[in-house]
Amino acid sequence: MSRVKDVTTSRMQNYLDFRNDPLAFFMKMQNGGEVVSLRTGLQPSFIVNSPDFVREILVAKDASFKKGRTDKVLRRTIHNGLLTAEKHDHKRQKSYYQPIFYKERLNSYAKTIVEETKSLVTSLQDVEYCKLNDEMMQLTLAIIARVMFATNVEENKKQLADAVSDTIEQTAQTLFTPIIVPLAIPTKGNKIHKKAINKLEDMIYCILHDAKQHPDQYKMTMVGMLLDTQNDTGSAIDDEEIRDQMMTMLLAGHETSANLLTWIFYALNQNPDVEQKLYEEIKMIDLEQSPFELYSKLNYTQLVIKEALRMYPPAWLIYRESEEAVELLGETFKAGSTFMICSYAIHRNEKVFPEPEKFKPERFADKKGEDVPKFAYLPFGGGSRSCIGSKFAIMETTLILAILVKEYKFKVEQETVTPDPLVSLRIKEGLKVKVEKR
C-alpha cells in the first residue's frame, strides 16, 4: 500500500487556499497522509508530514536534493551565501563559517548580548507603549552587527532594520507567487526591494573597507575571519563572496531571533503561570558577571524557548527539489519533484505533542523530550543544511529573555494576533504592548 496519498481538492482550490492562508493549508493537509501529492502534473509537488520521510529527504538522500525555488528567490538578495549555496560550495562555505560559533567566541558574544540588552532596558524606562517586534528587531540587529561585524549601528539601526524587513517582505511575496519577476523590472515591489538591498550593501561595503584598513579591530569577527580565509585555489576570498556571507548573516542571523522573541513574549502574556515560573528562575541571577556560564543553567528558560520553537518556528517551511529520480522508503519520485516540509504543522501533530495548541514548556522537561521522534521537531532544520548558528540563537534568546523578564512585564494591547508566514514566521502587524516595570 502506497504511503503517498493524493489530495482530494482541485489544483486551483489548493493554490487559492495556500495563497490565502499557508499555515491553515498545511494544517489541513496534515491529516491527508504521510506524504500528500498535490497532483500538479509535470512538476509534481508533495507535502511531507511524516518524520520518517523528512529524515530521508534531509539526511539519508540529501545528495539527491537541492533547495529549489527558495534558492532562486533568496539569491536575488543574498546571491551565493551560505543560505543559498549548493553541494560543494555549501560544504566549503560551511567549513570556514564554523569557527565563528566555537565556544570561546560564544563566550565573547554573550557579553555583547548582555550589554545591548541592558541598553534596551535603559531606553524602555520612560516608555509606556511600544511595538515589541520593532524593539526586538533593532536589538538583535545591533547584536549581530557588533558580534559579527564589530560595528555599532546605534545611529541608524531602525533604518537598517526596516531595510531587512522590506527585503524579507518582498522576498516572501516573490516566493509565494507563480512567476518570479526579474529584479531588474521596475515593479513597485522590486523598487522597494532594490532600495533595501542598496541600504544594506552600503553598510556592508563600508564595514569591509574599514576592516581592511584596521584589521586588528576585526580580528575576532566574521569579517576578520573571512578576510583571512583562502578559497580552493589558495587565494583570498573576494569582496563579493564576503558581501554574500555578510548579507546572509544580516537576513538570517537576526530577523529569526527577533521574531522568536516576540512570539515568546506573546506566549508569556497568554500564560501568566509560565511567566511567573520563568521570573522565579531568573530574578536572582546576575548575568553580567559570567553570562556564558550562567545561561546554560537557566533550565526552565530554555524549556520555554523550546516550546516557543515548537509552536512558532521561525523557519516554518522547508523546500526541497529532487535533482534526479529518487526512492524514499519504497516510494519512487521523479526528478524535479518539489517537497514541502512545514515544521509549523508537523510540530502540531497531536499524536506526538498532546494538546498541541497549548503552550506547555514542561513537555520538554526531563526525559519527556527524548520521546519525541527526531524529525517530528525540527526548529533548526536537519541534516547538512541544519542551522549552523543554532547554539548562538539559543544563547542569544536565553540571555535577552532573562534580562528583559527580570526588569519588565509586557502586556499585549491588541485583541487578536495573527501569524504572518513570510520567509520567517512573524506576527502580522507586529505586537503592541504596554511596558510595565517590575
UniProtKB/TrEMBL annotation:
Keyword Oxidoreductase set for record: yes
UniProt cross-references to Pfam families, sorted A to Z: p450
Instruction: State the organism named in the record.
Output: Metabacillus litoralis
Keyword annotations of the record: Heme, Iron, Metal-binding, Monooxygenase, Oxidoreductase
Q: Which cofactor does it need?
A: heme
Q: What is an example of a GO molecular function annotated in this UniProt entry?
A: heme binding
Record: residues binding heme = C387
Name the UniProt record assigns to this protein: Cytochrome P450
